[in-house]
Design a protein that fits this description.
It contains two helices and 14 strands, in the order E-E-E-E-H-E-E-E-E-E-E-E-E-E-E-H. It has helices at 32-37, 166-169; strands at 2-5, 12-15, 19-21, 24-26, 46-52, 57-64, 72-78, 80-87, 98-104, 110-113, 117-123, 128-134, 143-145, 163-164.
Length: 176
Amino acid sequence: MKFLETPLKGAYVIEVEPIEDSRGLFARSWCKREFESHNLDSKLVQCNISFNIKKGTLRGMHYQAEPFEEAKLVRCTRGAIFDVIIDLRADSPTFKDWFAVELTDKNQKMFYIPERFAHGFQTIEDNTEVFYQMSEYYSPEHSMGIRYNDPSFSIWWPEDRQIISKKDQQYPDFSQ
């Protein structure tokens, strides 16, 4: 695996290194030792799947508050997404900055998102599936969000047509 650090310290785009032959390919998508060698949270307690029927579906921006902050490893297993993170670490030089990467079933990239980052994505193809590996259990009472179009961040979303849950539309403006 190739670990490519993003401008937001601690967040990585990870490229698999496929071994291909006439049957197809084989690639490693998780190795505790490799994640630890990059000082990444290697605890894995839960995996989630998100299936999205329509292009333009937007989910986010989600995070869990302490003491249930979570790191995520996200991979698009079918279709394509525009995957976005926001640095919510008040002590970080990139506090409130956002970064995005396109994850597709074809490019096979993964996105490592550290604790104290908000995360969301927009589908850029119909019938898109996303697979998440989580470092912490879901805790409904610690589940938080930031509105996808909060002016504090000015995130650019690629699709004009947006299918968004009422919950994600109603998050309040961000405040420190």
